[in-house]
Amino acid sequence: MAAPLLEAGVAFAVLAVGGVVAARAGLSVIPAYIAAGVLVGPNTPVPALALVSESEFIDLLAELGVVLLLFFIGLEFNLERLLASRDRITRAGVIDLVVNGGIGLGLAFLLGFSSVTALFVAGIVYISSSAVITKTLIDLGWIADPESDAILGVLVFEDVVIAVYLAVLGALALGGSPEGVAVSLGVALGFIVALVALAAYGTPLLERLLATDSDEQFLVRVVAAAVLVGGVALAAGVSEAVAAFFLGAAFGGTSHAGRIERVITSERDLYAAVFFLSIGLQTDPGALAGVVVPLAVLVPVTAVSKLASGYLGGRTYGLNQRRSVRVAVGLVARGEFSLVIAALAVTAGLPRAEEILALAVGYVLVMSLLGTVLMRSSGRVEALVARLRPPEARPTP
After folding, report:
1. What does pTM read for this prediction?
2. Under CATH, which number does the domain 55-393 receive?
3. What gap in Å lies between CA 194 and CA 233, rounded to an integer?
4. pLDDT digit string (tens) for 230-256?
5. DSSP assignments along 88-101, one per residue
6. What are the structural domain ranges in the chain?
7. What is the pLDDT of residues 356-380, one digit of tens each?
8. CA angle 5, 368, 230 (to 5 degrees)
9. Residue 146 CA to chain centroid, in angstroms?
């Protein structure tokens, strides 16, 4: 048991060092955590530093990080507000899907992928990272601002789309029957509806569940609910992020919302750090060398497409130019879902699956770095957009 414990200690130590470096450089901790994973992971360019391996322990903590991040964000995103904005969310989400999914599919065909594998590549470049984006929203203090509603609304739309998409893609890749696809879709949608119903009508039940004066018991109950629902969702073929989000929205309607935020913040940050470390652990710099050309095509084109669709979505949402620019930069980062899609390609044994995995890891690394940098530099982007506007469209001083 000593070796796994030592490995865990090393993992947390490099996260701590990465956090210090990021703070001194004035950068987000997310790229630092990913870089730390690359440096000490099994594919490190410095073999002597290969101290942490991909393991079930790391994977589990990383999954907990995604669940708690989305649960926390659900607390902030009131269900009534979500439902009241459903028309705007749908419009912004459809723009996002058509623009980025369409461009991703076209680029995949351009790069020589076959029909089924092209669908995988399209999904990888379409879906933004709920984990990276929500973490950065919290860090920057945007969570209470109007643009966060639009960003989170698009993320929820994407997560619901990806739940359906993964069910269909999995059936296609694994040779499932049309009946199997239909059952998978029905289960996924039924689970989501059940969570929405819980958020809308389950407040009395949740109030009783959390009725305790002990912070220890309170924390255990909250984490138990979030992890259990996330696990059941995965078993049912539904994104654990979607489940955690709606469960968080359900708890957000109780009188305990403020207390929940207070007691789970440290756990959320700890496990989220491991999630970002795990991305680095999966990154093989050697394999990335073989996908430099596809990355050189995908990164600039899909960064611009996400910025364009995000800005249009913000305007559709009724936001002004400044806040629409924040929506645009806030949706650039890609992350956990892109890796899940690539892993499915490998599991299914698709042609060029290893190339898809390397492409996804490199893409996530670059886009997560670019997305967090853009969010932290949003003021400069806003100023650039303002200068590019024609004189007659600029506000009068």
Report:
1. 0.78
2. 1.20.1530.20
3. 11
4. 898 888 777 777 788 888 888 988 899
5. HHHHHHHHHIIIII
6. 55-393
7. 988 998 898 899 889 999 998 988 8
8. 60
9. 20
